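Example complex used in Figure S2.
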Amino acid sequence: MTPPLHLHGIVPPVATPYDPQGQIDPDSLRRVLRHLLDGGVHGLFVLGSTSECVFLTAAQRAEVVRIAVEVAQGRVPVVAGVMDATTDHCIAHGRQARALGAQALVLTAPYYTRTNQAETQDHFRYVRDAVDLPVIAYDIPVCVNIKLARDTVNTLARENVVVALKDSSGDEGNFRMLLRDLADLPDFALFTGSEIVCDAALLGGAHGIVPGLANVDPRGYVRLYDHARAGRWSEARAEQERLISLFQMVFFAAQDLSAGASGVGSFKTALKLMGLARSHHMARPNRPLPPAAVERVRQHLVAHGLLAA
Amino acid sequence: MTPPLHLHGIVPPVATPYDPQGQIDPDSLRRVLRHLLDGGVHGLFVLGSTSECVFLTAAQRAEVVRIAVEVAQGRVPVVAGVMDATTDHCIAHGRQARALGAQALVLTAPYYTRTNQAETQDHFRYVRDAVDLPVIAYDIPVCVNIKLARDTVNTLARENVVVALKDSSGDEGNFRMLLRDLADLPDFALFTGSEIVCDAALLGGAHGIVPGLANVDPRGYVRLYDHARAGRWSEARAEQERLISLFQMVFFAAQDLSAGASGVGSFKTALKLMGLARSHHMARPNRPLPPAAVERVRQHLVAHGLLAA
Amino acid sequence: MTPPLHLHGIVPPVATPYDPQGQIDPDSLRRVLRHLLDGGVHGLFVLGSTSECVFLTAAQRAEVVRIAVEVAQGRVPVVAGVMDATTDHCIAHGRQARALGAQALVLTAPYYTRTNQAETQDHFRYVRDAVDLPVIAYDIPVCVNIKLARDTVNTLARENVVVALKDSSGDEGNFRMLLRDLADLPDFALFTGSEIVCDAALLGGAHGIVPGLANVDPRGYVRLYDHARAGRWSEARAEQERLISLFQMVFFAAQDLSAGASGVGSFKTALKLMGLARSHHMARPNRPLPPAAVERVRQHLVAHGLLAA
Amino acid sequence: MTPPLHLHGIVPPVATPYDPQGQIDPDSLRRVLRHLLDGGVHGLFVLGSTSECVFLTAAQRAEVVRIAVEVAQGRVPVVAGVMDATTDHCIAHGRQARALGAQALVLTAPYYTRTNQAETQDHFRYVRDAVDLPVIAYDIPVCVNIKLARDTVNTLARENVVVALKDSSGDEGNFRMLLRDLADLPDFALFTGSEIVCDAALLGGAHGIVPGLANVDPRGYVRLYDHARAGRWSEARAEQERLISLFQMVFFAAQDLSAGASGVGSFKTALKLMGLARSHHMARPNRPLPPAAVERVRQHLVAHGLLAA
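Predicted assembly (1236 residues):
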């Protein structure tokens, strides 16, 4: 019997620092994790999309979970993405993550192959049956080509197959209806993957946020969350607006790079500039931010008080 | 020189009641308009998507504007959709609407033909140049196949080509960034077309809402707006949740009808059941809600206190 | 009782020349029509997408049909597009086209509003019932946002609601399956809207082609069709390859203009350079090809033997 | 220096038979491979989409390549899919496939992560540089979410990064333009992944076909190819029409299963009914065809002369 996870608050998708040869840099990863814990985050989501999960081998995924569990020391839950194209691969990742101490799995629909909603529901059921850990459904159609339908989320939640939802679909209206649909399940938690409508999601009843930008400014998101929990909505909105301003760095290389590489690349660049990661490399074929964009990120961090001039 | 429009608050897209032969029913339209004004709405948007604008002939469009201006008696602004496939048709609709007393035009990108962002910007410029009325940009990619890019809205706003945006794209993140982008333009107003994340949009700084559901329950949306303006966010959220519950009627016929017909059809059905419209017919080829769905709408209205049992 | 239409062969969507003020230029239109008839085409499709149909007023549409019927003098069928957003508008266009002598209507699904397949089938039924002319279904999802499902085409064909299909969906596999599905209906005709896989479509059994590029080179398409009908497939392929080369002009302005404006604009530019149309203007908001692209079209026509150096 | 591959003709994406526990069934795989070779195919494409490649572990992928190379005995080329989400994983699969005797790699764009065209081009370059085998570009946007742009294919072909294209995009017009673009590269080969417009693709100059349905009826596709090569286009078309009829089995379970599961599942069902595979199971979460659909496949095979009544 798995105990309730009680995941809530700010749960950043932890960036995965590489060395220039494309290997995981464990020291940099430890620094990023401590930076997040020092910033007051309420959980750590390793091996998410922002973590470049699908670029990692099974051994690298193990290394990331091991380090996160070691650094967290049980102070906050560590949840691990098990993204892979198909059910049995996800189960293998899930078993490994459980053995290494992860407290929950984060699971998307299958990808490459195009499943329908019924097959997608089975996918979640198979993984839940095979690994004795709570499962968090991760809705990210931009990556996996299918949106978890409102009915699918309701079905999986009421069957206790999934204990939470991370919604990165951008469909805030549907998210809001799910919050209402599932309000009678006291242990079910709904998270938005948005960086920029967090105050709005919290006003609507969201239990937490999974913002990639929290790698750069965890304290900002924790403040936003604290304001919202206390009903200080004007202050929450002001903090959100500061973070929207900070977020604009994701567009600095968007002329040249894909949206993903420009966004995650800007976070990794900030981590390097802040002295947390040794390199801002991304996994191939993504290219790191070019020098001009790196300089824009530097000035942006200075302007937002996150870096000395 | 056009005076500022100062459009804000609840501006419902007014449903257009038909008689069973598919002609506009002027008495029903007057009753709906008075129902909205009595409900406290801050403006009237006739000839929107919910109004089945594109189904109407030029003469019918004229009739709608004439009646709305007559009923409004200047108490609230009447803004008129001029949706059509291409620039010159929109200009013709715009001139007619101006002559009949509309105070602003609501304009989408061209449709059927697929324009790019530059051509779309020209479209707005041409209409603005040709008709001496303020123009409200209407972003509804589900109908017109193109999203107004963030840069397009910024450009048109700063050129004073458009004075407001109605965003029905569902992209709440982009809407939030636009609110921040345009915060320095004191007269520019941003409206969401959503029925279900209105509290969130208002928290983010939106100036108003254009909810189709306000045809059915204008008072609910006005209360929501008043709570938000006064910073009573818990009350705003509670009202929003009541309205989300009411909104579920749009899905009652979704198994059989297209989303648009099921949604607009449910509003027209409610207006009939509430004694405001004589018929719940929609324009061809849309079919009215079948009897079982009509009965579900009736029970739903009763359950929400909008109809006596 | 409408007699069978027996439409087949090369049926170009006739370009609509404008004067620089954006009005239809009747003399230019007559020259284009005679150029097509002299080129040996088997039918004339006025008011198609390439004809900028949706940009035209009802009066302009009438003028185009009147001129085409007058120039054709019954030598080939004149079929008229009745594209509009909704059923009753299409019926009005259809009645006008019939009164002016068109021999069939070309009809798409409704647009702007999003209908489902059942509502779309009703749309075709209503128009067929209201206008005593054969109806040709026109599948162009890029413009109208819905693909006519294989089942919809089969249903409408077997109900005798439509007598032909013009397929501009680009889904050649589905087109091929429809050819097989409907092979037992001797009077049903299937046309492809493609300019570049015409030999392939004819090999698969297509009854004809509706290529925009035939405005520029009707003789080339007629030769291609004649080769195919005679089973001279190598010659058909060689002619197709020449036409694919000619077709590349549609990309000359694609950096600046939308695909539609770049494509139709290149045809109108060619017609001007060939002395058939007085102007290469397009309807607003589309911009005409810029001078550099005009010069490229000129050289391209020379290189393909369609213009003296 | 890799010798030219000279891949051409019928190169089926070999189905991967499983046992009911979801493990590869080597004996069934050998029977399927011999069935294809006996049918006269010109190459074997293992680990394609139809092969459920992305469902397999590295060890299972190795087993498939090893068995295919062993059964082929050098009589026809064995090319191996190396589909994975990102560059370095594809390289690992490629090195393994090379070590086991594959003669070329088949490579898609990265997936899950969304790369742009430039990053996608780099992906192909990195894999080509890292593995000394010819690379075949595989364009399958339905699975990987990005279409290989015409310019990308041209660039990679002229840089000798890829030696062939397998086009499963369904965009026959673009495929035809690529055939023309690359006609001056004598060793570059273009394959269509279509089952139903093969005669058309061959008329247009395609070098070969990669039809999943050839698992069921290799002789039919070989006959089609032979007719086309000999210029017997009427016979090619007749054979194609027979195969289109056979192909309809992919829709027998489409009400319940995703398109992929219904299609691949119907092929696996046919292989079982024909005594080649012991089971018609698919990898989880896909469900095998239900009994009623199995029975329809059986009757269909009988009707097409591929199974005794």
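Residues 78 and 102 of chain D are 5 Å apart (CA to CA). Chain D has a mean pLDDT of 97.
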